[in-house]
Design a protein that fits this description.
Elements: E1 4-5, E2 8-9, E3 13-14, H1 16-19, H2 24-72, H3 79-93, E4 98-103, E5 108-116, E6 128-136
Helix pairs in contact: 2-3
C-alpha cells in the first residue's frame, strides 16, 4: 500500500496533484525568449545580406557607368553616365534605391547607392544602408 505524505507518494515520485499547473509560466517565458532570439537573429542575417547586396549593386553600377563612359570615348560625367548607374542599381535592388555618381578626377568615378534597411520589427531596421564604389575609367583601343 502506498502512503501519501505532503503530496509525495512513496516509491512513485510526486503525485499527479502536486504537478498540476507546474511549469506553465516558465514555458511561456521560454517561448517568448526563443522567439525574441529568433527575431533578432533573422534581423541580423537579413541586414548583413542586404548590406552585401547593396555593396554588390554599387560595384556593378560603377562598372556599368564606367563602361558607358569608355564606350563613348570620353572621360567625363554626363547625364548618360548617371542614368546608366541609376538604371543598373534599380535593376538589381528595386525602385526604392537612390544613386549618386560623382567624378573624383579626370578618370575616376564614384557611385554611391543608398537603400532602405530591412525592417522586421518596430525597433529594428530604421536606418538606411549606403555603400560606395570607385572605378577607374580606361579608354578602349590604343593611344595615337
Amino acid at each position: 500500500m502506498r502512503q501519501r505524505l505532503s503530496g509525495l507518494s512513496i516509491g512513485g515520485g510526486p503525485s499527479a496533484a502536486a504537478e498540476t499547473g507546474a511549469g506553465q509560466l516558465s514555458s511561456v517565458f521560454g517561448l517568448v525568449f526563443f522567439f525574441g532570439l529568433l527575431l533578432t537573429t533573422s534581423q541580423v542575417l537579413l541586414s548583413l545580406h542586404r548590406a552585401s547586396a547593396v555593396q554588390a549593386a554599387a560595384s556593378d553600377a560603377a562598372h556599368a557607368s564606367a563602361q558607358a563612359t569608355a564606350g563613348s570615348g570620353g572621360r567625363s560625367c554626363t547625364e548618360a553616365v548617371v542614368e546608366q548607374a541609376s538604371i543598373r542599381a534599380e535593376m538589381l535592388l528595386g525602385e526604392h534605391v537612390s544613386t549618386e555618381v560623382s567624378c573624383l578626377g579626370a578618370d575616376v568615378l564614384r557611385v554611391t547607392v543608398r537603400a532602405p534597411g530591412v525592417a522586421l520589427g518596430a525597433m529594428f531596421g530604421q536606418g538606411a544602408i549606403q555603400r560606395s564604389a570607385e572605378v577607374r575609367v580606361e579608354t578602349t583601343g590604343r593611344p595615337a
